[in-house]
Amino acid sequence: MVMLSEVLEAPDSVKLDLLFSRLPTVFNVVIFSVHGYFGQQDVLEARGTKCDQELEAIEGTKHSHILRVPFVTDKGTLRQWVSRFDVYPYLERFTQDATSKILQRFECKPDLIVGNYTDGNLVASLMATKLGVTQGTIAHALEKTKYEDSDAKWKELDPKYHFSCQFTADLIAMNVTDFIITSTYQEIAGSKERPGQYESHTAFTMPGLCRVVSGIDVFDPKFNIAAPGADQSVYFPYTETPKRLTKFHPSIQELLYNEKDNNEHMGYLAEREKPIIFSMARLDTVKNITGLVEWYGKDKRLREMANLVVVAGFFDMSKSNDREEKAEIKKMHDLIEKYNLKGKFRWIAAQTDRYRNSELYRCIADTKGVFVQPALYEAFGLTVIEAMNCGLPTFATNQGGPAEIIVDGVSGFHIDPNNGDESVARIGDFFSKCSTDGLYWDSISNAGLKRIYECTWKIYAEKLLKMGSIYGSNER
């Protein structure tokens, strides 16, 4: 009551925030993640997993479940995987089916609906509007800023990406929602050199289709910044020896150094004593993993200083259902051949075990290696957070959120993905300085750890629930 009295007498943002954090107004929450197989482990190919179960309890929680609702067509349930660019014809029917299932499970309306990505946010908007429920939107990465001139070239790109549907869905969600969560300021309003992801939707034209003159107001108070984090019980510093997951060491050694190619890895490292340059991401154009491989292949100095290991996608194009990934797989094989990377480069297929992945980061740190995130654009960069949590000095793209996570030259380094020569020189200079200053690697590692403690899932969850309470106080 004292807190309420203070807010009524002399309201300010701090007191209001504290009051809403104490009010029990959010009990039932729906979080949408529509695209792809969704499970807790080993879902890369879905076989042998629980991805076909309608309801699955979330490990380590109470009263939290994964509810799976399939896409349905006039011909019945859709069984095959669908690219995120091709899901739009199924979303209206999915919303109807998901709404029925959720009301049946809760036996009441949810208090908060949170969407993720374009498809999940559109579904969340449709459901929240129908039920009159508070909605939160998390875009993660709006595609419009990822592909240069994608609005002007929409006709050319539409058969492959369906941007006409995607940009429309994004505009609907960001305007209908009660609040928007972004990871960084740059996601909203960009920088001096580049417009923000949301800012780019303020006004644009898709010739022959539409002209957007007031797409979104980036000064709207619905915008909030809440940086996600890594699970610090899983991603912890390599120096915390008693906590190290040593049971994974034999399989990680095999993963990194076994010289025989198999379905999980190809290529080998002839000089094991060298530090490792490490990267892990989806194998697509924007993540720019092949760009990193090309930088490394071109630079003789860096090849002599360090090995390169990447975790990304498949080796065999026939195993991929994604058009873009297939093109990147072919490009990767071409680069390995072009720069004769045998003995210096290891390509590991995408990994799904986050516990082993966390120990893999730490094993890379044991080699006094680095993590590189070379994306052409990155809204936030969760792998950057994971790597820094494990104590790895990190080089990350200056295009997007990682530029806010890392203080350049102090807690890590910014690299320009559009200037490979400059980027690879920065990495080479780092290893060169480490060879003459025995404390330099540790100083960057420790500064990264200090910086990253500001980003945790606990802080993120608390902020999200506060937003649900604050924005939920307004009637839809």
From TrEMBL:
Record GO terms (molecular function): sucrose synthase activity
Source organism: Brassica carinata (Ethiopian mustard)
Gene3D superfamilies: Glycogen Phosphorylase B
Catalytic reaction list: an NDP-alpha-D-glucose + D-fructose = a ribonucleoside 5'-diphosphate + sucrose + H(+)
Record keywords, A-Z: Glycosyltransferase, Transferase
InterPro entries: Glyco_trans_1, Sucrose_synth_GT-B1, Sucrose_synthase_pln/cyn
Domain Sucrose synthase first GT-B: 15-44, 45-257
UniProt keyword annotation of Glycosyltransferase present: yes
Lineage: Eukaryota, Viridiplantae, Streptophyta, Embryophyta, Tracheophyta
One GO BP: sucrose metabolic process
Residue span, Glycosyl transferase family domain: 270-431
Listed Pfam families: Glycos_transf_1, GT-B_Sucrose_synth
Glycosyltransferase among keywords: yes
Record's protein name: sucrose synthase
Residue ranges crossing the lipid bilayer per the database entry: none
Similarity section: Belongs to the glycosyltransferase 1 family. Plant sucrose synthase subfamily.
PANTHER family tied to this protein: PTHR45839, SUCROSE SYNTHASE 6
SUPFAM superfamilies registered for this protein in UniProt: UDP-Glycosyltransferase/glycogen phosphorylase
